């Protein structure tokens, strides 16, 4: 693990050096982050702006803002870590550069998941933290235990998102292009900007147990508001662990069937 962390520090330094060569890109990326957050907030603003609007699926406006904050944090994780790394898996398989990765004395999954980081999209993370801070300031009876539990559940959520995205990227061993699959994931993940209870029952069940989008944003927000059930609290890390194990086994299975570009 210490060796992996040293490599991650090297990757971060190299990425930061490359990013600073195009400083104007940071402004463009920040504007993109602000635009994404504006889109996420627009739906809530339009709903709560109506005089007859009470709550969205039982969520008040500050509570719904928690969901948007966790959504932006997750979007930042996807933009900074997942997209620049896992979207390149298909290209590395097609061009044969994955062969060099497999020859290195480091776990290949770790390497393909952390080698390239888009630090220009850290604005998504900053915007998400600002939204969360504003929402917490507007809420009453927020406890340190609730915030800590939300942080732990959000880590589980990131593991789940990574594992699902990694499994989609691993299908590149059999399919040349996987861009459409990841775009499909992005389309479904867009529903995470709203509380799961705001959707009809069939959709809510699908977003909770079929594609666990609710565990990414709604469940951590419920931990802060104190409405999270013990069953869901225990289910979140179980889903994260199962998803990570499935992604790892699927990756190892794909490598066993990989004949390399030079074969």
Explain the overall architecture:
- The chain has one domain (2-256).
- Helix content is 73%, strand content 0%.
- It is built from twelve helices and no strands.
- It has helices at residues 2-19, 24-48, 61-86, 89-95, 98-103, 108-114, 122-138, 144-170, 179-189, 201-210, 214-225, 230-256.
- It starts with a helix and ends in a 7-residue tail after the last helix.
List the helices and strands and how they pair.
Layout lengths: L1 H18 L4 H25 L12 H26 L2 H7 L2 H6 L4 H7 L7 H17 L5 H27 L8 H11 L11 H10 L3 H12 L4 H27 L7
Helix pairs in contact: 2-3, 2-7, 3-7, 3-8, 3-11, 8-11, 8-12
Which key terms come to mind for this protein?
73% helix; 12 helices; mainly alpha; 263 residues
Short description:
The chain has 12 helices and no strands. By secondary structure, it is an all-alpha fold.
Give me the number of helical elements.
Answer: 12
The ordered string of helix (H) and strand (E) elements is HHHHHHHHHHHH
- Rg measurement, Å: 20 Å
Tell me the helix content: over 70%
Number of domains: 1
Q: Estimate the mean pLDDT confidence.
A: 82
Global geometry = globular
Annotation, overall tally of beta strands: 0
Strand % is: under 5%
Poorly predicted residue ranges? none
**Largest β-sheet summary:** none
End-to-end CA span: 32 Å
Please state the structural category: mainly alpha
């Amino acid at each position: 693990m210490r060796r992996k962390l040293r490599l991650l520090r090297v990757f971060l330094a190299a990425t930061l050096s490359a990013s600073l060569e195009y400083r104007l890109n940071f402004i463009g990326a920040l504007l993109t982050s602000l635009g994404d957050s504006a889109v996420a907030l627009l739906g809530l603003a339009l709903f709560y702006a109506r005089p007859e609007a009470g709550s969205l699926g039982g969520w008040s406006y500050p509570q719904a803002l928690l969901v948007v904050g966790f959504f932006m944090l997750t979007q930042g994780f996807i933009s900074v870590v997942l997209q620049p790394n896992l979207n390149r898996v298909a290209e590395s398989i097609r061009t044969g550069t994955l062969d060099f990765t497999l020859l290195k004395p480091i776990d290949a999954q770790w390497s393909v998941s952390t080698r390239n980081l888009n630090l220009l999209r850290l604005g998504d993370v900053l915007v998400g933290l600002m939204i969360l801070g504003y929402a917490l300031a507007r809420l009453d009876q927020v406890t340190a235990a609730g915030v800590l539990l939300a942080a732990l559940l959000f880590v589980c959520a990131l593991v789940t998102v990574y594992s699902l995205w990694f499994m989609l990227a691993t299908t590149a061993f059999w399919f040349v292009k996987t861009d459409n699959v990841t775009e499909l994931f992005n389309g479904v993940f867009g529903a995470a900007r709203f509380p799961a209870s705001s959707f009809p029952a069939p959709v809510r069940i699908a977003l909770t147990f079929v594609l666990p989008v609710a565990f990414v944003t709604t469940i951590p927000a419920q931990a802060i508001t104190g409405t999270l059930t013990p069953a869901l609290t225990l289910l979140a890390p179980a889903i994260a662990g199962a998803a990570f194990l499935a992604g790892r086994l699927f990756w190892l299975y794909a490598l066993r069937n990989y004949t390399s570009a030079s074969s």
